[in-house]
Write a structure and sequence with these properties.
Length: about 525
């Protein structure tokens, strides 16, 4: 089936004359730099070596007038102008005018341009909700992984008068780019998603966000792809750790109560005493690293280093040097000598490096444990993974079940996370019912993030349903026996609405004071007024 954005339809009949609903731009990168180029309505940009074109690229492989990008309304097209070396869209040469859409990549010589879009700014909601944050962050992580682009995440905790917080947030918004997203994460916490931002650029935003006027205090934490993780949960977990000022300590005793997980750990103990390579398979966030750490901790190499890296969290350009070393730089293999090397997302290793790793393993005194959430035999059949390496790393396979298949562990895990994250932290019985009913597509990692956000909303005390993310309340499914016995959504809505009404009445309808009384920001209060139709009361 032909994809919609592959259709070369650029006729006048295909043009939609209605006003564009989104803003379009190009993320142009080459060498070690990148920039954002707006695509205004009726824009026409020529890429080429000629200094007079709109997007000049000084490289011998680029023709003087190489390609043209046009925008009419919400339709973007690219056309090769008879160049010597051609123009690629998503890795394929084009021979006619090609329509492109958000996420498509246009390559001309050494440069590439990623087509991107953003919704217009809404004056009534300059600060996004937690659900909007999670949706956008998931989309940006997916784009960063697919196109090997940097991504930054900043979180900011503010303390002080609500009026000063509001002024600081409004000032911060003015310094952000159109593609960035500022969202609430808790009553006094904000998150900033920064596409196309490396570690240095993310740190600059974090410093600016935490530079506050007299009367406010602020602390910030940041994380970046690919350095800190390749999944939403990993990035949020890392930035939360930095916001709390904690460092990684010894691995906690894992929660093992479900029969399926007891079988997993029995397999881990069985293989730990040997040197056979182990392949751990399972969905993202199920706890594959916990299994790998257990094998290392109870095996004969327990006194050696445990070196963990994700092949998906490293760019192709640096992955070879990271794995094998370069000059005085020590690679992962060498740093794991006498210990264990855990390679997560092994399926993301490029084919050439798969061959090199297979040839090199016998030269290193390292126990290798690999993990993947992909079906590696199927990847081998498709030619995306080397059979020789697969045979080498899969001497002993351990499948880890998703959290939805070991629901008996949801409650003890939630209780453990709450206790770890807050001295007064606990999870109420009604919240536990909500947690047990949710499907947890992000598995244990998603559960931990939900508990941490619940503690933020509860002030570090007991987590009740109203403190949990909305998606947990909205996505109940399955048989009646899987649902809570209480109407959680209705109760949360009733409690929430009444709390807003009481706060407004107690403060003579002063929104700033009402927000402070509720322990939320003024932006969150405005959303609640709209949600419960309380405007003008």
């Amino acid at each position: 089936m032909t994809r919609q954005h592959d259709r070369p339809d650029t006729s006048a009949q295909a043009y939609d004359p209605r006003p564009a609903l989104v803003s379009w731009y190009l993320i142009v990168s080459g060498d070690a730099s990148s920039r954002v180029v707006p695509l205004g309505d009726d824009a026409e940009l020529v890429i080429g070596r000629d200094a007079e074109v709109e997007l000049p690229i000084d490289h011998d492989s680029v023709s003087r007038r190489h390609a043209r990008i046009r925008r009419r309304g919400d339709q973007i097209t690219v056309e090769d102008l008879g160049s010597r070396n051609g123009t690629l869209v998503n890795g394929q040469p084009i021979t006619a005018v090609r329509r492109v859409t958000a996420g498509d990549t246009i390559r001309v010589g050494p440069a590439q341009a990623i087509v991107a879009s953003s919704s217009p700014a809404r004056h009534t909601r300059q600060v996004a909700t937690i659900d909007e944050l999670e949706d956008r962050l998931a989309a940006e992580v997916d784009r960063a992984v697919r196109y090997h682009r940097p991504l930054g995440l900043v979180m900011l905790r503010l303390e002080g008068p609500v009026e000063l917080m509001t002024e600081h947030v409004e000032a911060l918004i003015k310094h952000l780019r159109r593609m960035d997203l500022l969202a609430e994460y808790g009553a006094d916490e904000l998150a900033i998603v920064l596409p196309e931002s490396d570690r240095d650029a993310t740190a600059v935003v974090a410093r600016r966000a935490s530079t506050v006027p007299v009367g406010l205090t602020a602390i910030s934490g940041c994380a970046t792809f690919p350095e800190d993780g390749a999944h939403v949960g990993e990035l949020i977990g890392k930035v939360r750790e930095r916001l709390r000022g904690v460092t990684a300590g010894p691995a906690r005793q894992p929660v093992i109560t479900d029969p399926l997980m007891k079988q997993v750990m029995a397999l881990a103990r069985q293989v730990a005493a040997s040197m056979i390579p182990v392949l751990i398979v399972g969905e993202a966030g199920v706890g594959k690293q916990v299994v790998a750490e257990t094998i290392h901790r109870i095996g004969p190499r327990r006194d050696g280093p445990f070196v963990r890296h994700s092949c998906a969290a490293t760019s192709d350009a640096t992955l070879e040097a990271d794995l094998f070393g370069l000059g005085e730089r020590v690679g992962w293999l060498e740093s794991a000598i006498t210990g264990t090397l855990f390679l997560d997302e092994i399926n993301e290793l490029p084919l050439a490096l798969q061959d090199k790793l297979h040839r090199s393993l016998e030269h290193y005194d390292v126990r290798l444990i690999c993990a993947s959430h992909h079906d590696l035999p199927a990847e081998v059949a498709r030619g995306r993974f080397r059979d020789a390496l697969y045979q080498r790393i899969s001497g002993f396979s351990i499948p880890v079940p998703p959290l939805r298949d070991r629901r008996s562990e949801i409650e003890p895990l939630a209780i453990q996370f709450a206790a770890e994250l807050s001295a007064r932290g606990s999870v109420g019985p009604e919240a536990l019912e909500v947690l047990r009913a949710y499907a947890w597509p992000g598995n244990v990692r998603e559960l931990k993030n939900a508990i941490e956000r619940g503690l933020l909303m509860s002030g570090g005390a007991q987590i009740d349903p109203q403190h949990l993310p909305d998606r947990l309340l909205e996505r109940f499914g399955g048989d009646a026996g899987d649902r809570p016995q209480i109407d959680v959504r209705a109760r949360v809505a009733e409690v929430e609405r009444q709390a807003v009404v009481d706060a407004l009445e107690a403060t003579n309808h002063n929104q700033t004071r009402a927000a402070k009384k509720l322990g939320i920001s003024r932006f969150a209060l405005i959303r609640l007024l709209d949600k419960h139709d309380l405007r003008g009361r």
